[in-house]
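Q: I'm writing up a methods section and want to include an example of the input and output format. Could you take the sequence below and give the corresponding predicted structure tokens, formatted cleanly so I can copy it straight into the document?
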Amino acid sequence: MKKIIILVAGVAACAPVCVFGTPPFGLIPDWESADERSTIEIALADFNGDGWQVAKGERKTGDGKRHLFYLKHYPALTITAVRVNGTPVLRADYCFDARAGWFSLKNAPPNGARVEVDYKWSNRLDFLAGNEARAQTDNRDVVYFNRGGRLERTPSWVSTALEGTYTVMEADYDADGDVDVAIGGKEFVKIYKNTGTGLEGTPSWTTKISGGWAGCFAWGDVDNDGYLELGVSDSWLDKFYVYKNNAGTLESSPSWAVGYQYSSYVAWGDVDGDGDMDLAGSTFYPDGYVYVFENKNGELEKTPCWRCDPPKGNCRALAWGDVNGDGEVDLVKGTYGASGPLDFYADIYYSRNGVLPTTPSWESEYYAYCDTSCLTDTDGDGLLDLIQAKGSGIIGYFRKAGILEKYPSWNYAPGPPFAIFDIRVGDVNGDGYPDVVAGCTRSSGLPTGGLNKLFLNKGNIGVNVKDFTASPCACGVALRWEAGEAAAGFNLYRATKSARVAAEPGKVNKELITGRSPYRYLDTDVRNGATYQYWLEVVPLAGPAERHGPAECTVGVKASFALAQNAPNPARAATTVRFSVPTACEATITVYDIAGRRVMTAFAGGAKAGENELEVNVSSLAPGVYTYRLEAGGEAAAKRMVVVK
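A: Here is the clean output for your methods example:
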């Protein structure tokens, strides 16, 4: 087998590849509440504490550059410890977003360093609905408890508050090991404390905002003391402000505030990778900008360190997350619209070396009002997709052919007069993949509400298997496949294909096939000239086994022209590409950037008949998407290749 070493020059960064077939969420809700509510904002957490789990020593690997790491399970409650090569990291040297599931270290771990994290999470997430005041609906806040992986349809917890809620945010703000909830609205901010078995019925902490309106909340530990501060946007007082948390007690008036007209949204993120939380705030008309306020040694600056270029509309729906897979936190912005046809597009700003660009690195091509943005790994490949509430429904941008799609492939609309202004993501049914819950109301001015909804993630039932192939080789049949980490192992089954007899598949391997993706197996017990069909049986860590296939192969015939996907993909240091040609011939492999510009001719020379293998060194590349194109014997084929750091 011929080996060719390819050294590829760097190109511009872009979103990493995750091949996604069909949207994982359907157009019919898997659950709806039995009661009609005017739900404007929601929360997703284990409020009654019946599903807490402890993850100890979850492993990550440092690369010398990466500050940001994601937890396997989120939303989480709290991180209890972080260790690098066995040495504990001080609490003052990292920050984390429990709801989004990431933590950021002040010092990037060295290349190859063992990073371990202990944290608390739940496999029984409950659904809290915050309800605005409507004439003919019960506007008290409620919780639908999770009973064994299923949400009850009638809420078991009902608050006593009647003012009408406009914003909700959950967190363990007093660090006592359970989830509390902040609610806000016209001239008030309140907190329902958790008693250990559930939320109290009457808020135990309340502060009045004279002439104000709490429009958005965000919890973040500004001074890294283990207690979360509450960030607020107030569109009536035209301010962003923060309530400091003193050892589990919020101050009654903000200790930090800045004035910006029609402030809209707030979100915490470690944009500069220094291990503490910076604050992003967005505004409505006539400003329409997003600002970032830097955290310096536990104190927020009042002058922004960053502002986006002149926007196309009102800014809303901020979210932080590592979208392009380079270990830095990026900023997502949704727009609310003001005037003109370009006002409703979503933007993502990719951070590079702790600095956000002022113009978007990624921009959607779908025109939609956006009120909430959620970044989540829908298929367990370690890469983030984007889910947004758009008022008239929900949209989802997933990975296709290596790129975060710019036109959403999931578009749910409940139909007029219903509206969805808030969504949350989390594993409701305990299968290991994030689901989507949505609060539903009716359009403004109508007296009644709607039915709250749940969409289960159906794109990842079992283990995600890709590219199961069977190819003839000199020693028999070479089988190859890729799969996620949720498998205990694999079995292969084979049947001889015949036009006369339907053969029963027999097991090929004697012992369970284990290892790391991509997986390979060589079947030598074959006859020359025979055609075989192979099935791959996945043995998951939990649940029933499932089969994929068949993959078909005829032994002893000429190889066909084919270009295989590189593996691993995404790649960090080295990756392998295989191709086959029917006869020996001259071949070229050309690498292009995402804009279609030729970067280099990676290979030009002779290729032998059959399978050829290329070892690609990508260690010098910036994160990005590349296309590699094979031309040989008058035929051509191309594949996407992604590099992450």
